[in-house]
Amino acid sequence: MENDTIRQLEHLIQRELETLPELEAPHTLIPHVMARIEGQAHAPAWRRTWWAWPLSLKITSATVLFTLIAIVSYGSHWAAAQWETQELPQTVIRWWDAFASAGAVLGTLGNALLIAGRSIGQPWLLGMFAFVFLMYLTCVGIGTICFRAAVNKR
Q1: pTM to 2 decimals?
Q2: DSSP string, 108-147
């Protein structure tokens, strides 16, 4: 029953649409559309989607991305291993001592941070880092919105 009603409505709408005269586009529309298409075709690669980039830029950007992921992955694994064996604080302290008096001050501060970090616990530290990272992303997002609002031509 409902399908019959829908079909009848479709036929009624189709008949009414066929009785309407065809609309003509304004004469200025075609040059504007063609100019827009031409402008997008010659836009720099960074303004187009990644899939539209030249192959050499895709390979380069993918290589850089995977390299950064590998560095972060290896670095975090190395830091975690150093943290577990207590070698990371020792290494950091040795680096800081190379700067004489500044190294002593930074060593004291580093030890205080390590003690505070151990007393707070790793889950809290990870939570704080995640919170700071999310706040950073929020600032980037708000900055992007403000920039787009400032350069919007409307």
Answers
A1: 0.33
A2: HHHHHHHHHHHHH-HHHHHHHHHHHHHHHHHHHHHHHHHH
